[in-house]
Specification:
35 strands, four-stranded antiparallel sheet, 477 residues, Agglutinin, subunit A, 3 domains, five-stranded antiparallel sheet, alpha+beta, Hepatocyte Growth Factor
Length: 477
């Protein structure tokens, strides 16, 4: 990118109004030829990009050639489209996705229709009327990414993707709340304090607080009076660098910098920064997050196994059944798991003098699959157990109903599984026996070789003596 990179950003809106980068009615795109409409400097592009076995429609960094960095996706929860699809800016000013059979899906429109569309260097895709006024813009409909000059106001949210390869709506959201706080929650919760796993802001603010990101990576919350109420970053170098804020599939909010000269991507800031296992539900139902250094792994509760070993977020399921509980109550016991809690969705809470009493109450209740015991209270739970997490400072003991006499291994779905001690002992015995056998074979071979050597030497000496005898007798003659 040229050294005047940010000058282009500042002038991009002017260029658009002057007719540069304006796309007129009747234009179209296809995935394989003329696949996108670039911004004036070529930094961003709107159009088709590769996803899975097909193509998605959205906005991506065109100046990052090594990989597709998507920052906005249209109809993200629909499957990728095939290569024979077409994106039409119709004669009546609508932006529609058309299949090979002629079926049309509107992507963006307004009642009077757009006169032109434009991809701006800010990363904003806009539909304009005949006076070049913006009537629709992608900035008002964010997906998982927040860009400089974009505002996130109350009620708006960013939603994570399922994965880097799948841009459909994932499991986490970051929400600009009406109380002026920015907060993160699992998707599908009530967005209460108990549901949240990170937040930023100060009390007493109104709904006019917005999140803003500047071109230098300065990320902050600002109120309606123009007062910055919370700085999350102070800003960074700007030369040939682009910043974006993204809520990633793992539920972590990260500020990325892209060096457009070196196609280098760096994480400058992230939240929550104290524990990357904080995003609740990261490992799905009945599973919980563990750390191995800076790598995240998922483990299952006792007597549970991964639903899908290739997808840690799919959670865990029982590897045995307790359906025979009513006819054989004595066949079950409660296995304790220390410092473990989950979502408070108990169907019954009892006073219990001890952990043993709590376990007994659950084991005799066929509706109870697990219980939480703390401070003399026993909370009974059914499956699934959502938002399971370890907290070493929490004295809660989780009690899991398991069949008597069955093993309850802990299964890690993302990190290499440690072999059991029994397997280690078997391996040691096998290796020891193998080494002993090898030594015996070597000794045997050595013995045979020594024996043959000695026999050969003896025969050689005997032969020499025989030859010397006749030679002496002939000399005597």
């Amino acid at each position: 990118m040229p050294t005047l990179f940010f000058l282009f950003l500042l002038l991009s809106a002017i260029f658009a109004q002057q007719g540069q980068s304006l796309v007129k009615r009747g234009s179209f795109l296809t995935p394989t030829t003329n696949s996108s409409w670039p911004s004036p400097s070529g930094l961003y592009a709107f159009g088709f990009y590769k996803q899975g076995n097909g193509f998605a429609v959205g906005i991506f960094l065109a100046g990052h050639p090594q990989k597709t960095v998507a920052v906005w996706t249209a109809d993200r929860d629909k499957p990728p489209v095939p290569a024979d699809s077409k994106l039409n800016f119709t004669s009546d000013g609508k932006l529609v996705l058309q299949s090979a059979q002629g079926a049309e899906t509107p992507l963006a429109s307004f009642p009077d229709g757009a006169t032109s569309v434009s991809m701006l260097d800010t990363g904003n895709f806009v539909l304009l009327d005949s006076d070049n006024r913006t009537k629709w813009q992608s900035f008002d409909h964010p997906t998982d990414t927040f860009l400089p000059t974009q505002n996130l106001s109350h009620g708006q949210a960013l939603y994570s993707s399922i994965s880097d390869a799948n841009r459909s709506t994932g499991k986490f959201q970051v929400l600009m709340q009406e109380d002026g706080r920015l907060a993160m929650y699992p998707v599908g919760t009530q967005n209460t304090i108990e549901d949240g796993y990170w937040g930023e802001g100060i009390d007493g603010q109104k709904s006019d607080v917005v999140l803003q990101l500047e071109n230098n990576g300065h990320l902050y919350l600002i109120n309606g009076a123009g007062v910055i109420i919370r700085n999350m970053t102070d800003g960074y170098p700007t030369k040939d660098v682009l910043y974006r804020l993204t809520i990633d599939p793992d539920g972590i909010l990260r500020l990325y910098s892209h060096d457009m000269n070196q196609t280098l991507t760096t994480v400058k800031w992230f939240a929550p920064s104290d524990d990357i296992c904080k995003p609740m539900g990261l490992c799905g139902d009945n599973g919980y997050c563990v750390l191995n250094g800076q790598q995240v792994g998922c483990e299952c509760l006792p007597q549970f196994e991964p639903v899908n070993k290739e997808d840690r977020s799919a959670g865990c399921q029982r590897n045995s059944t307790v359906e025979s509980c009513k006819s054989s109550k004595g066949n079950f016991t409660m296995e304790p798991v220390l410092h473990t809690v989950w979502e408070n969705k108990s169907y019954s809470v009892l006073k219990s003098p001890s952990q043993a009493n709590c376990g007994e109450a659950c084991s005799q209740d066929c509706d109870c699959e697990a219980a939480l015991f703390k401070d003399g209270l026993c909370a009974k739970h059914m499956l699934p157990l959502r938002f399971v997490r370890k907290n070493q400072t929490d004295s809660t003991v989780a009690l899991i109903k398991v069949k008597v006499g069955t093993s309850t291994p802990t299964i890690n779905t993302t990190l290499p599984k440690e072999p059991k001690k029994k397997h280690r002992s078997d391996h040691i015995i096998i290796i020891s026996v193998s080494l002993l056998a090898f030594v015996l074979v070597v000794l045997a071979i050595s013995g045979i070789a020594i024996y043959r050597y000695r026999v050969s030497a003896y025969k050689k000496r005997a032969y020499t003596k025989m030859r010397k005898g006749p030679m002496v007798s002939r000399n005597d003659d």
